[in-house]
Amino acid sequence: MPTRFAAAGLALLALLALPAGPARAGGIPQPDGFRQSDYRSPTPDGLDGAETVDTPGVQALLAGGSVRPIFVQRLERSTLPGGPWLQSRPYRQIPGSVWLPNVGVGAPDAETMSWFTAQLDHVTGSDRNRDILFYCLSDCWLSWNAAKRAVLLGYARVHWYPAGIDGWMEAGLPTEEAQPLPPPPAPPPGP
Predict the structure, then answer these.
(1) How many other CB atoms are found less than 10 A from the CB of residue 109?
(2) C-alpha span between 146 and 97 (Å, rounded)
(3) Is 38 contained in some domain?
(4) CA gap 120, 134 in Å, rounded
(5) Which domain covers residue 96, as residue numbers?
(6) pLDDT in tens, 39-73
(7) Which residues form the Rhodanese domain (predicted)?
(8) Phi then psi for 42, rounded to 5 degrees?
(9) Which of 28, 36, 103, 129 is the one with CA 20 to 30 A from 83?
(10) DSSP-assigned letters across all residues of 40-53
(11) Does residue 13 form part of some domain?
């Protein structure tokens, strides 16, 4: 029955010829809470309450002029009270972005959460219906966590860009040097 084998072979070749999608690990379940570790690993295909967008989708949002991109790459911070971010190398971001480091970690401290909430309020002009776009690097849970936090804070137009700045740069799109906003205030000294 060579025709049945030939048909199966052609079907397999057709499947192999399909264009590969972005490096997305289909089937990664959305956790009930937040990802707590291993932030650079495959992410879910979506996020409940947010719109997952690809590079052309981000371009369309930016062309509309109403979205505010938020870069959430993690940074270390000086251990000095009220110390600055420690940026060991330059980072690139989508033009017009605001860089809010560490707001996508699994369990941020109270100061970071308060800072995140205040910065979102500032970035959106206190409009919970303003479009906001979260991104980091590709395969990075920091942006997924931050977008989920925004959804839980009541923001209605949250967009998540899983390809991140890596996908943006791979598409040859313009970037600018990233400058993190000043860090949240240091916690008050203990008793």
Answers:
(1) 12
(2) 15
(3) no
(4) 11
(5) 66-185
(6) 999 999 999 999 999 999 999 999 999 899 999 99
(7) 94-177
(8) -55, 140
(9) 36
(10) BS---S--TTSEE-
(11) no
The pair of structure tokens assigned to 56 is: 């052309």
Please report, as a single letter, which amino acid is at residue 87: Q
Question: Letter for the amino acid at 176?
Answer: E
Contact 23, 40 (CB under 8 A): no
Q: What is the pTM of this model?
A: 0.82
Q: What is the DSSP letter of 183?
A: P
Give the number of domains in the chain.
1
CATH number of domain containing 137: 3.40.250.10
Taking residue 170's Cβ as centre, other Cβ atoms within 10 Å add up to 12
Residue appearing with tokens 């690097």:
137
Residues of the chain with pLDDT under 70: 1-26, 186-191
Per-residue pLDDT at 190: 58
Compute the chain's Rg from CA coordinates. 20
59 found inside a domain: no
